[in-house]
Design goal:
three-stranded antiparallel beta sheet; 48% helix; 4% strand; mainly alpha; Serine Threonine Protein Phosphatase 5, Tetratricopeptide repeat; 14 helices
Amino acid sequence: MGRRITRAKAKIKAARIPYRVPSAEDLPARVSGVLAVLFLVFNEGYLATGPDTDPVRHDLTAEAIRLTRLIRALMPEDGEVAGLLALMLLTEARRTARVSASGELVTLVEQDRGTWDAALIAEGHRLVRERLAARVAPGRYQILAAISAVHTSARDVRDTDWSQVVALYDQLVRLDPSPIIALNRAIAVAELDGPQVALAAVDRLEDTLAGYHAYHATRADLLRRLGRSQKSRAAYDKAIELAGNTAEIAYLTRRATSWGSADPGRNPGQSGGRPRWNTRRGPQAGEAPGFGARYADGHPQSQWPTTEAPLACSRSAGAPSKSPASSRSRTLRSPVSSGRAPQYPPHGWRVQIGGSRARCAADNVPDRRNYRYFVR
């Protein structure tokens, strides 16, 4: 690293590149790269790599949040800055619940939600609602923050509105159709359509994610839920081989060697069908309302505006309709205003939105670490 800095200084000197503080006009063009770096720093702290490293590095997550707050103060109208800050806060709120006393990773399903930081969650939810109210087409950080907001607004994992999570991932896929997004979407699909449907989607990602430990961990969990013990153990072994976080390795090892117990929050004995989780009961007294709007007839849709007009969806066997004539336009209405409890959607509803792909500024390819913690 020292040699790299020396070479960079020499290049700057030889090229006579002037040192100057960027002006306000320079910031928008540079902010995406800065946010990408801050997100990478946060993710390394969130799930640190290396055998001799603490599984969670609070020093890195705290510094990433501090720097993102500074950018937020400089650019208060930038939606992606607000989205990234909200995403960090909602993730950091769960930090103390993510590793057990024995040093094992505790997944979102198993975490004690009473230990989550209520102040950070409230701030993160406020930022997400601000972006929803702005009625501006979102970027990927805003959608990721909205997904996290749906998770953290549920008092119990069985109250999670998985239909909203899938609808938001559908929007994210259109902005960034990376295999990591597809993997995380499949995890949510498993809670609506069952592990068999999700496994088929995950298996299609093998060519691109064969070297990614979370891919094998996800397959192992789905195979476990389907009762395919031999294939599940093999997938767990591969995930353990590729994992670089000590807490995660401990968790995967336990899962690979323990069988016969039901997963927390899931209905025992159900291996497929929809929903595998207990049916969402809708917002209760004092509970935050959902973060997604719905069609007027109750089907889920994100509140984010789109670049397409009219906003339309198609009810097909799986993929959105390619013909505008076959699309059915719907009127959006927020559950906050309608007072209706969320319902599971029919199969095949897909959200249509516009937007450009978001890429890692460093190498112009999706960075897997940007999304890894949504698997957990």
